[in-house]
Amino acid sequence: MTVTGAARLTGAALAGALALVTAGWILRDLVLADGSAADLLWYWAGDHRPAARERFATFGLDPVLLLVYAVTTVAALRSPAAASALAAAGVVTLGVRLPGLWATSGATALVTTLLVLGLAAALLATAALGRRPVRSVYEPVPARPRRGPAVTAGVLLLTGGLLQVLWEVRLLRAFPSEVIVDRYIGGRSAVAATLAPPPGWLLLVLVLLLLTAAAAAVVRPPYSRPFGMVAGALMGGWGLTGLATAFRHDLFVRLPDMAPVEQLVLASALFDLLAGAIVVIALAGPGERRVAVAPEALPALPPAPPSPRPPGW
């Protein structure tokens, strides 16, 4: 299945709008930081000490989402087989931004959340309704990932998802119940940027995406490539954020004296960064060549009778 030209243009416009909204909020935060990109970067890395007049709105994975939207826009403009990329961008956006309906503060943030969710839903509708069967053997069709890179990506995605589950279980055992609730649905004890989802919710979305993308990579349908690449990008961004937080708090200097569990936390963040990069590179490579099968030709019909008909026709 491919998408029509109108669906490609619509999908590119929707993904571009998501990119513009995200870029606009990043620029707003940069202005709040008086142009100091370092303050904003450290905030994304988890340093929530006051660095601006107001609370920042973006969080560490917003640059990754911006990159996803930009790549999706280009893919929709260049390839008729971009339905999976549109769907992947829409699903991730819905998962990450949905808590903004109840966890954000301020009318502007709520309006932004409604706008972004509407654009994401429109992306999914465009990917679903704009599909059409291949009509020519010369049309490009979605390519399945090659077996070796797909299995490699699946193993890394599965490992990353299971590691996140193990760390989250260990973390939840140390928190009281009210803090756990705030961690997943938002609350005063969950410190986050204005547009950021609660940390537990974000981790749940990431785990579901990693495990789903891992299963898809093993089965190797055409849509496993964009979903796996998006999952790998988010996993890499998650790991980079964790390593930046450790660097901000000088944890690498105290690495030899740290407890083994703390060392494993840093090792897990490093694994997320490297594994995410490997997944993106593996699935971005050339896929298996597929030959599009044109629809069967209709049987030839007998010629129409002449008019007027000759005698004995």
Describe the protein's architecture and organization.
This protein has helices at residues 5-32, 37-44, 62-78, 83-97, 100-103, 107-129, 147-172, 177-185, 199-219, 224-248, 260-284, and strands at 2-3, 131-132. The chain is mostly helical. It has a two-stranded antiparallel sheet with strand order 1-2. Helix 4 packs antiparallel against helix 6 and helix 7 (147-172) packs antiparallel against helix 9 (199-219). The longest helix has 28 residues, at 5-32.
* Uncertain ranges: none
Strand sequence of the main sheet, in spatial order? 1-2
Rg from alpha-carbon coordinates: 24 Å
Please give the alpha-carbon distance between the first and last residues. 45 Å
The geometry reads as: globular
Number of helices: 11
Percent of sequence in beta strands: under 5%
What average pLDDT do the residues reach? 85
Order of helices and strands: EHHHHHHEHHHHH
Largest sheet: 2 strands, antiparallel
Name the structural class: mainly alpha
Helix-strand blueprint:
Elements: E1 2-3, H1 5-32, H2 37-44, H3 62-78, H4 83-97, H5 100-103, H6 107-129, E2 131-132, H7 147-172, H8 177-185, H9 199-219, H10 224-248, H11 260-284
Helix pairs in contact: 1-3, 1-6, 3-4, 4-6, 4-10, 7-9, 7-10, 7-11, 8-9, 9-10, 10-11
